[in-house]
Design goal:
Blueprint (H helix, E strand, L loop, with lengths): L2 H12 L1 E4 L19 H4 L1 H6 L11 E4 L2 E4 L10 H14 L10 E4 L7 H23 L7 H11 L6 H6 L19 H7 L1 H14 L10 H10 L4 H27 L6 H18 L8 H5 L4
Antiparallel strand pairs: 1-4, 2-3
The structure holds zinc ion (ZN).
Length: 301
């Protein structure tokens, strides 16, 4: 998954504006129908819990005695106070939009109406891309903390606020260089996969897991796809996924500590942290309580 294929259809979508009617054609989470930004970007924690990611706006409200009533329609319940607050924020955002009885219409930014078949074609392309990405990430939904899951979900969609990403959004920065090597533009894939320090970390981590590091991996998505294609035992695969998640998360933490706390990168510490945190996750969340630290340290279980 290169940047190009991901960005092209989104550019097309950027030029289409939905005019909300009853919400019968507009996708609740994915279309830009509230303040020109998709709700899944504003509320990633809620989106992770949505069981029907492609639901329409009209699937998430009913007309009651007091007018439009929005409801949480996912099969996955909102279980924490934080999530309930987020959902309340989401409702107050969508309440600003005027729901009408007419059908939704798509407009080009010039103001002319677009045919439904055109929208269908564009959406077809978008769906193809999203489905591929989501299936990979959602695999580890319950095995890692939610904030890490959201982080990875954004990594896969290339929505991490790296220097390169901020530049694209026209935020001025003094330098685009990666803080760790000071040598290349900091992109998600550079930071997490292709930079020298990332490569070193991955090779050490794969050595520890006693699995050959796949060659020519240029992105996290590619790595996930490669792991997915293996016919390992379920338990092993699960452990490998958790370790990959822990590695991405810790690489990002190290980068932040270098930028915001002026620390220098320490690969030995990083490797230790990855082993420790993945042990906690695998033990407490992945249903493998029988694992003990001595065994995990040599990745045998
Ligand atoms: Zn670098």
């Amino acid at each position: 998954m290169g940047r190009l294929t991901q960005n092209q259809p989104f550019d097309v979508q950027d030029r289409l504006i939905p005019k909300v009617g009853s919400g019968d054609k507009i996708l609740f989470w994915q279309d830009k129908w509230v303040e020109n930004r998709p709700l899944h970007e504003r509320f990633p924690n809620l989106y992770v819990l949505e069981s029907e990611k492609g639901c329409k706006v009209s699937d998430r409200y009913k007309v009651g005695q007091h007018g439009i009533e929005w409801f949480w329609g996912s099969n996955n319940a909102l279980t924490s106070e934080d999530l309930l607050c987020e959902w309340a924020d989401c409702i107050s955002a969508v309440k600003e939009v005027n729901i009408q009885e007419t059908s939704d219409v798509w407009l080009w930014k010039t103001g002319s109406v677009t045919s439904d078949s055109m929208v269908k074609t564009i959406r077809g392309e978008l769906d193809h891309i999203n489905v591929l990405n989501e299936t990979k990430v959602l695999k580890w939904l319950h095995w890692i903390p939610k904030k890490v899951n959201c982080f990875l979900w954004r990594v896969v969609l290339d929505r991490i606020a790296t220097k390169e990403a901020l530049q694209i959004r026209r935020i001025n920065l003094s330098s685009l260089q990666c803080v760790l090597c000071n040598n290349e533009v900091e992109s998600v894939n550079h930071l997490l996969m292709t930079s020298e320090s990332a490569q070193l970390v991955w090779s050490l981590i794969f050595q520890w897991m006693n699995i050959p590091l796949p060659g020519y991996i240029l992105s996290v998505v590619q790595l996930l796809e490669t792991i997915d294609s293996h016919s390992w035992q379920k338990k092993i695969k699960r452990a490998v996924y958790v370790v990959v998640a822990a590695t991405c998360w810790n690489l990002r933490l190290m980068r932040n500590e270098c930028i915001f706390k002026n620390k220098s990168p320490n690969i030995t510490n990083l490797i230790g942290n990855i082993k420790a945190i993945s042990y906690t996750w695998i033990k407490n969340r992945a249903g493998l309580q029988e694992i003990i630290w001595e065994k995990w340290r040599s990745f045998s279980f």
